[in-house]
Amino acid sequence: MPPPTTNNLGYTPPDGGWGWVVVLAAFISIGFSYAFPKSLTVYFKEIQEYFGVSYSEIAWVSSVMLASMYAAGPISSVLVNRYGSRPVVMVGGLILSAGMILASLGTSIIHLYLCVGVIGGFGLAFNLQPALTIIGTYFQAKRPLANGLAMTGSPVVLFTLAPLNQFLFDSFGWRGSFLILGAIVLNCCVAGSLMRPVNKMVVFKPKTEPLEVNGAEEASGAEALRSEDSPKSQSCVHRFIDFSLFKHRGFLIYLVGNVVMFFGFFAPIVFLAPYAKHQGIDEYSAAFLLSIFALSDMFIRPATGFIGNTRWIRPKIQYFFAFAVSYNGVCHLLCPLFSGYAGLVVYAIIFGIAFGMVCALLFETLMDLVGAKRFSSAVGLVTIIECAPVLLGPPISGDQYCLHNVAALHQ
What are the transmembrane regions (predicted)? Predict the structure, then answer.
């Protein structure tokens, strides 16, 4: 892999102060972005029976939601560069809430694809991308730790939502639950209100004139500061997407590896609870497997960020990420060796550790490879390309899951 890119943002990130409040806000936004689609799997069995659809068809709900979140990444980044993180996150919370409320009125599985998948996915994209970029404006020396803490939001929210969703379903049914979830996700608007633009201390001035910074640029940690006389004719797409990254060896290795990985990255989570129910495990115990997974994930993410920030690992964080990806694959290869509920608990623990390590390092490694100035373009290209495996992975796995169940019945 190439050496880490040297960052020159044109100012000194505070590496603390209000930045820790921003980390808390990113914790909430990232938490809902990644955990929300996973937590909905608790409703899959009941929705499947209600609409009379297959495992593969119901898997498309979470799959479309994740794919929409990834596909809308470039749109979200352009809006962040133009308006700042705060308004984009708040609008994202409103969109996600509207999607869940409309889904509670669903009359078909297609209705859920559109409301939960497409509308909800766009709302999540407007939460994820701003949270990732604003951390880069507040942190540089402590960035791996800040990213690790922010990414911990996913398992914490999942740990809370998994049993809560089961309780809501038992009390209000899936329609009433979706309506209540539409109110809960409005907390994303609160998180967005905390994402105050960084107060940049300019330490590098390319000209003798003072360097002025507008509010939109303050929200983008992926680009260097621009002076007032920047070309007005430069389009948003040209400013955001840097296609020269496809000549960057490290970026190509990262991209190809992630595309392959994401075909199976989310599928084990989507089918963990349904698989446990198929094995005869009761609903609450099956839902609790997601909480166990989230608990392991919850503790390993900040620990990974802390380790990644040490002087021994920080210069070689790309290889630390490669180790995490390899460990994630090995843990799934060992899954068939675990039997019964106790075995699934052990699998959920080691899977949570592997998953958490990968997630804590995912975007930190990308920024380490391409640098802060090109991070916005890089994350946009990565998310738009990754939406294909994110979309197809769980349904393909669902088809294999059905074939496995049919074979087991014949035996």
Answer: 17-37, 58-80, 100-124, 176-195, 251-272, 284-307, 319-339, 345-363, 375-396
Distance CA 218, CA 31 (A): 23
Please state the CATH superfamily assignment of the domain spanning residues 18-202+241-409 in this structure: MFS general substrate transporter like domains (1.20.1250.20)
Domain parsing of the chain, residue ranges: 18-202+241-409
Which pLDDT value is given to residue 383?
82
- pLDDT digit string, tens, across residues 145-198: 988 899 988 888 877 887 888 888 888 888 999 999 999 999 999 999 999 988
Per-residue model confidence as pLDDT tens digits over 277-304 = 877 888 788 878 887 888 898 899 999 9
Give dist(CA 119, CA 64) in Å, integer.
10
